[in-house]
Design a protein that fits this description.
heterodimer, A: 141 residues, 2 domains, B: 150 residues, mainly alpha, transmembrane helix (chain A), YdcZ (chain A), transmembrane (chain A), DMT family transporter (chain A), membrane (chain A)
């Protein structure tokens, strides 16, 4: 039950984040919004890391350098998210993001890119994907 | 419409890439250390691109309202909830609920037009679209074992 609650609140927070960013960007611009929100989030996380001390910084060296750059994608993600919300509304934006995300993950899984364990996709995955696209088409009509 | 849709699709693709990269970082370091690095990287990237696009105007914060400084904290809430949810439920179950919750709150937001967003009126058609997407998520995530290929 606790896990379900965490998952529900987590999802609500993700949507809230997009909406808050879209709102802020109307006043200060999209890139400012991305910069400020990432900076304040970074400061809070840094503070927590200093308190809970789970920062084993030398362990970062064990990670392939390419993977350390993942966070930088947030610039594109936030920009895309804000622009989309302004243009097509929250529901359609979240739906489209979701489909792109699952399709891309799907491709990575099938091909085993980035050292991910290769997975075979079966009929249910294709049906599920088809249903999601159909849902977005209905939303966009 | 098309611009908005493409922007969302680009954001989604990068998001899946980011999730994989971040998971790799997480495997080696603690989750808070990883979160700090991820947000730090995002900050640096936004700062650099922002400077290229907007020049010195990037650091002019005229219309800043107080709460804008705190909205970044939401990201910390996201990470905490996702990590706890996945730990307690496992990734498939947790992510399915997260995605469903995301969509439901999005519909709620559009319908109410909170936080100064333009209100997008609620309709049965919208509800149907969201329900079909949620059905798709459930079929995708729970429909049969996805066998690992050796």
């Amino acid at each position: 039950m606790k896990g379900i609650l965490f998952a529900i609140i987590g999802g609500a927070f993700i949507t809230l984040q997009g909406v808050a960013n879209a709102q802020i960007s109307q006043d200060i611009g999209t890139w400012q919004t991305a910069t400020v929100t990432q900076f304040t989030g970074f400061m809070v996380a840094l503070l927590i890391v200093l308190i809970v001390r789970d920062g084993k910084w030398q362990k970062f060296k064990q990670v392939k350098p390419l993977y350390l750059t993942g966070g930088a994608f947030a610039a594109v993600i936030i920009f895309g998210n804000i622009t989309a919300i302004h243009q097509i509304g929250v529901t359609l934006t979240i739906s489209a993001i979701l489909i792109a995300q699952l399709s891309f993950t799907f491709m990575i899984d099938i091909n085993g890119w980035f050292g991910v364990v290769k997975k075979q996709m079966k009929l249910p995955q294709f049906i599920g994907m088809g249903m999601m696209v159909a849902g977005v088409v209905i939303l966009g009509l | 419409m098309l611009v908005g849709l493409s922007m969302a699709l680009i954001a989604g693709s990068f998001l899946s890439l980011q999730n994989i990269f971040n998971t790799k970082v997480n495997e080696h370091t603690g989750s808070w250390a990883a979160t700090t690095l991820i947000l730090g990287m995002g900050f640096i990237a936004s700062l650099i691109i922002g400077f290229i696009v907007e020049g010195g105007d990037l650091l002019v914060f005229q219309n800043m309202k107080t709460w804008y400084w705190f909205s970044g904290f939401i990201g910390v809430g996201v990470v905490t909830c996702l990590i706890q949810g996945i730990k307690l439920l496992g990734p498939t179950y947790a992510i399915s609920i997260v995605l469903t919750s995301q969509l439901c709150f999005a519909l709620l937001w559009d319908s109410l037009g909170w936080l100064g967003l333009e209100q997008v009126p609620f309709s049965l058609q919208k509800l149907l679209g969201v329900l079909i997407i949620i059905g798709g998520i459930i079929v995708f995530k729970f429909g049969g074992e996805r066998v690992a290929v050796k």
